[in-house]
Amino acid sequence: MMTYSRSIPFALLALFGSSGLAQTVKGPEFNKPDGGPPASYFAAGSSIPVAALQSAAAKASTAVPDATYPINGDKGAKKVTIHSDWTKFSEGAAYVWVADMDVDCDGLDSNCKGNPDGQPQTNFGALAAYEVPFFVIPDRFGTKYAKELPGNNVGAVICDGKMFYGIYGDSDGDTPQVIGEASWLMARTCFPNDNLNGNSGHGNPDVTYILFTGDDAVLPKSALNKNYVTNFTTLRSMGDKLVTALAKNLKLSGGGDSGSSPSTTTTASGSGSTGSCEWEGHCEGASCKNGDQCSGQLVCKSGKCAPV
Ligand SMILES: *[C@@H]1O[C@H](CO)[C@@H](O)[C@H](O)[C@H]1NC(C)=O
Are 207 and 189 in contact (CB under 8 A)? Predict the structure, then answer.
């Protein structure tokens, strides 16, 4: 296996190029508490200026009606506001807020650990919380702004310095309605060492949520069914495109890799200083902070993706 593991991916690459076949899935194969899709399937590209976006998000200040919610049901819980400063852009328009991250398992995996009150449905289907990186918004907000947020809108989450893409898959209708929840997969990928579950979330309100608005930001049916994300390449390329447009509107620059272009549709062989591989922009030589940001079996060595 050691001998062949490097040549096989390249042979496949030659056959399929960057068509994304490698990250097209059926879904059930990843519907396991500890066997969900790897972080690399929904991580932001290395050209995204994650830290700059996080700082910009912290400065957003414009509130729309019905935008403020507590982060949990406790008396005196911190309240968080969903900001609309970024909703007027023609491309990359988004709502943004900073909150904690509790674990939601509604849908197919509602019996997840620590989740006695799970519901079998999510707002737009019955998503599998072990397989789908989704996040949750308060129901009142989703209902009031349903025209901009038709459901399954792509969003980006910045947690612990990393950025992942997910979809707006569910809403919270508790009393009171709370903010700061994401699927089992998203929460445990954000904070892999904390054994998060339905009854144990990430309590610090230090997670940035960016939710893209409009029909163009909705993950299409070709990449998602009632239960599963079926094409992670679509999720990632939509996410990179929307976030890149947003960063441009905010005049942010300085992503992880000044050499790589944020383009999402190029050919397999069209790489410059960085090598080609199945996850474009994350190949040998691409900038990285950790191995999750490198394609396949590559690891992160001295800030660059490199062979083991
Ligand atoms: C998956 O998505 C990518 C990007 O949107 C697309 O190029 C590819 O054809 C899709 N794969 C399948 C099997 O639909």
Answer: no
Selection from 72, 99, 65, 87 nearest residue 180 by Cα: 99
- From 15, 24, 165, 237, the mutation candidate for ligand 1 (largest count of ligand atoms within 8 A of CB) is 24
Rounded CA separation 164/17 (Å): 24
Is the Cβ atom of 276 under 6 angstroms away from ligand 1? no
pLDDT in tens, 39-80: 999 999 999 999 999 999 999 999 999 999 999 999 999 999
How far is Cα 266 from Cα 30, in angstroms, rounded to an integer? 28
Give the span between the Cα atoms of 278 and 179, in whole angstroms: 36
Q: Does the Cβ of 231 fall within 6 Å of ligand 1?
A: yes
24 CA from centroid of ligand 1 (Å): 7
Widest pairwise Cα distance in the chain: 60
**Token couple for 134:** 């989704």
Read off the pTM.
0.79
Beta carbon of 54 within 6 Å of any ligand 1 atom: no
239 lines ligand 1 (CB under 6 A): no
Residue 219 Cα, ligand 1 centroid: separation in angstroms? Answer: 12
Ligand 1 mean position to 113 CA, how many Å?
A: 33
Q: Give the type of residue at 32.
A: K
What gap in Å lies between CA 79 and CA 81, rounded to an integer?
7
What confidence tens digit (pLDDT) does each residue in 117-163 have?
889 999 999 999 999 999 999 999 999 999 999 999 999 999 999 99
Q: For residue 149, give the amino acid letter.
A: L
What are the Cα distances from residue 55, in Å, to 49, 67, 158, 250, 297? 10, 20, 11, 11, 32
Evaluate: CB of 237 within 6 angstroms of ligand 1: yes
CA of residue 19 to ligand 1 center, whole Å = 6
What is the rounded CA–CA span in Å between residue 238 and residue 42? Answer: 11
Residue 255 is which amino acid? G
